[in-house]
Amino acid sequence: MRVPILNRTSLLSICALALILLPAFSGLAFSEPDPKTAIDLYNEGCIHYEQKDYEGAKDRFLTLVFADWHNADLFYNLANSYFRMGDFGRAILYYEKAKRISPRDDSIAHNLKLARANIIDKTEPADRNIVSELLVGVHSMLSLNEWTIISLVLYLLVMLSLAVILITRDTLLKTDNSGARNVIIKISKRVLIVSLILLLYCGTNTLVKAYASNLESGIVVAKQVKVRSGPSEDFAEVFELHSGTSARIHTTKEGWRQISIPSGLSGWLPKESLATI
């Protein structure tokens, strides 16, 4: 029996969070005869989900996504709706979107793992050792903005430590009272060394995160798709992918995307078969 999807909180209680978005969506009209606001749709989606009408919940949450509401709770709820409907490809897509906004959310990570367990293609790299797992885990724990802020703080600390050392040393040469200043210099040097090491580590993570954020990636949403050696049906089939598979997008040409998967295989597939994260 499959492990039930985790309920981080009642969806009805999460609905209250949407109240803060009402000003941003004031006057927003949809195609219905009686225009509805974003808060109405969000609340209706929550109610439909609680009533196990996952199709209805999905439609309402998806309307908000199309209205450019990018929110971790919305993506999480939409992913849960797709999960319940058995569409694991789109569930993974929106769990990944939610994870980018809230990288440390345990519920998102847990449900993403559950969804991935239900897909056909197992394309993830081989198991890493403990050290690699730790490094990857720490890297994934923080967002690009958080890594950037930490790196900037460490840079300022390096500059401050260096300034203290230079100023104190210059003062030391002009006086005979060297005891306290020697202690300050020693402490500042240790702070400088530690800060430099941490800055190197955090700066590297920031650069890697920034590089990855500029690379387009996606999830296969077609039930099954043939990957070909070129951007046309005339090219030979290289391999086959199924819903839920993660892929790196390299280029797009005439309705086709050139992709590669973690196992190293690459090829071209129809653009509509892959949704970008």
Describe the largest sheet: 5 strands, antiparallel
CATH architecture of the largest domain: Alpha Horseshoe
* Full CATH superfamily name of the largest domain: Tetratricopeptide repeat domain
Distance between the termini: 30 Å
The residue ranges in which pLDDT falls below 50 over 5 or more consecutive positions are: 1-35
Structural class assignment: alpha+beta
CATH top level of the largest domain? Mainly Alpha
Tell me the fraction of residues in β-strands, as a range.
Answer: 5-15%
Radius of gyration: 25 Å
Task: Explain how this protein is built.
This protein has helices spanning 11-14, 38-50, 54-66, 72-85, 88-101, 106-116, 130-141, 144-174, 179-213, and strands at residues 217-220, 224-228, 237-242, 246-253, 256-260, 266-270, 274-276. It is α+β, with helices and mostly antiparallel strands. It has 3 domains: 11-116, Serine Threonine Protein Phosphatase 5, Tetratricopeptide repeat (Alpha Horseshoe); 141-213; 217-276, Roll (SH3 type barrels). Helix 4 (72-85) packs antiparallel against helix 5 and helix 8 (144-174) packs antiparallel against helix 9 (179-213). The two termini are 30 Å apart.
Briefly characterize the structure:
The protein has nine helices and seven strands; from the N terminus they run αααααααααβββββββ. It has helices at about 10-15, 40-50, 55-65, 70-85, 90-100, 105-115, 130-140, 145-175, 180-215, and strands spanning about 215-220, 225-230, 235-240, 245-255, 255-260, 265-270, 275.
Looking at this protein, list some descriptive labels.
277 residues, alpha+beta, Serine Threonine Protein Phosphatase 5, Tetratricopeptide repeat, SH3 type barrels, five-stranded antiparallel β-sheet, 9 helices, 7 strands, 13% strand, disordered N terminus
